[in-house]
Design brief:
Layout (H helix, E strand, L loop, with lengths): L1 H14 L16 H19 L6 H8 L3 H4 L6 H24 L5 H12 L18 H27 L8 H14 L3 H4 L7 H14 L29 H23 L6 H7 L4 H7 L3 H25 L4 H17 L17 H27 L9 H11 L12 H17 L13
Length: 444
């Protein structure tokens, strides 16, 4: 070709005796799209590891070895960067699902191919959409529309799978949200616990295994333990002259309002004024009963762990088997996240803003919950109710992702719907989505 001929000819002339000395070529600049992709790759990693609040353009520029000003060729500001990262993450999910669906394979094989492609460690990291409230309205609408489009297509695939006998009867939309929740959680898993290595291929296998077959040894067995009564976690009526009770109730109302807003919008874009308005309190009351935003986040985590430990304690008080307790706790956890009067703070959200003492306290609670959950699941496995091939350490990494979407407030459910969704999520964890011979399993 002419271009390559010119370059070869130039080198030949320079090498001839008497020819001009050849000069080393300057490094070729990367194409603009590639430079933008590198920026978004690094931003996604930092957003997952540190959250929006602690991710700065300066840190990203330093990691990439460029000046902060150079980043403004590709993004307007931090909000625009988050928007571009979130939008690209949704586009990656949509592309991965489309490519998997074109294979023409059975529904669950398409799902497993979709998960493997979306989480391929050789591909760009997907950012969890944890702080979507930071986006400007038009940008937020774009991201939500893209994300809901992936859910709709995935749900349609699952519905077709049910009709073809490839998927057990289920709520396809709930199942689709759980699948996307597991995918979005995977890059965060290493930050949730430091006790095990978040090996990506093993994590993908664990997600696929859980979503296909759950953990139960006998998937056809009916498991229907009593519902854990969550009413003690809802706001209580306090006598008018109970000053201590009223103060505690005001604090709880503030923490509930803050948890709901943090779950829906993220910590950084949620103002103290918004929290005060949602709690029907003054900003002064927030400082009086809790403190500043950092204290609010810490107190919301304390409250969330109190809610999680409550379900564990109640299941133990009921004297349930490890299998029944696991189902009851999964169901209670899902219901608590869906209940607007309980709504515990989502895992990891805003944790990067805590000080060292608060992080130490949160880590202690996390370790206790991790140990109690793992011990219960280990008993379930030793009882023969959980398959022996289930890797408990990998399962512990995967499980939180299945239900993270429940607290986001993206979908509003009434009381009967909340119980049905909680049942569906617990059943998904127990028996997965693969067909089961016994027709009563879908009710488990």
């Amino acid at each position: 070709m002419a271009g390559s001929g010119d370059r070869d000819g130039g080198r030949a002339k320079a090498d001839r005796p008497g020819g001009k000395t050849s000069r080393p070529r300057p490094p070729r600049r990367l194409p603009a799209k590639l430079r933008r992709d590198q920026l978004l790759d690094e931003a996604a990693k930092q957003l997952n590891a540190r959250g929006v609040l602690m991710t700065s353009l300066t840190d990203i520029a330093d990691t990439l070895g460029v000046s902060r000003n150079a980043l403004y060729h590709y993004v307007e500001d931090r909000e625009d960067l988050v928007f571009q990262v979130y939008r690209r993450s949704c586009e990656i999910l949509a592309r991965a699902l489309g490519e998997a669906a074109r294979s023409g394979r059975p529904a669950l094989q398409v799902v497993s191919g979709f998960i493997a492609a979306a989480l391929d460690p050789r591909e760009p990291e997907i950012a969890a959409l944890g702080e979507i409230g930071l986006l400007r309205p038009a940008e937020r609408e774009t991201v939500v529309s893209l994300h809901e489009g992936v859910i709709a297509r995935l749900a349609s695939l699952l519905k077709a799978g049910v009709a073809a006998g490839e998927v057990r009867p289920c709520d396809a939309v709930v199942a689709a949200r759980c699948i996307l929740g597991a995918i979005s959680w995977a890059p965060l898993a290493a930050h949730w616990t430091r006790d095990v290595s978040a090996d990506r291929p093993a994590l993908i296998d664990a997600i696929v295994g859980l979503l296909e077959n759950g953990v139960a040894t006998d998937r056809a067995a009916r498991v229907d333990p009593p519902w854990i009564d969550l009413s003690p976690l809802r706001p209580a009526r306090i006598a008018a002259f109970d000053r201590a009770g009223l103060a505690a109730a005001k604090r709880e109302a503030i923490l509930l309002a803050a948890s709901r807003l943090f779950n829906a919008k993220g910590v950084d874009p949620t103002s103290l004024d918004e929290i005060a308005e949602a709690a029907n309190a003054t900003k002064r009351a927030l400082y009086q009963h809790v403190g500043d935003k950092q204290a609010l986040v810490s107190a919301c985590y304390e409250r969330a762990y109190r809610i999680f430990f409550f379900s564990e304690d109640e299941a133990a008080a009921l004297g349930l088997s490890a299998e029944d307790a696991s189902f009851a706790i999964s169901r209670a956890g899902a219901l608590a996240r869906l209940d607007p009067e309980i709504s515990p703070l989502r895992p990891l959200i805003g944790s990067e803003a805590l000080n060292a003492e608060q992080k130490t306290q949160m880590d202690a609670h996390s370790h206790t919950l991790f140990r109690r959950t793992r011990d219960r699941l280990a008993r379930m496995q030793s009882d023969g109710a959980m398959r022996e091939d289930v890797d408990l350490d990998m399962l512990m990494l995967v499980l939180p992702g299945i239900g993270t979407w429940l607290a986001g407030g993206a979908v509003a459910y009434d009381e009967p719907e909340r119980r049905a969704v909680a049942d569906e999520v617990a059943a998904l964890m127990r028996i997965g989505l693969a067909p089961v011979a016994s027709p009563h399993v879908a009710e488990a």
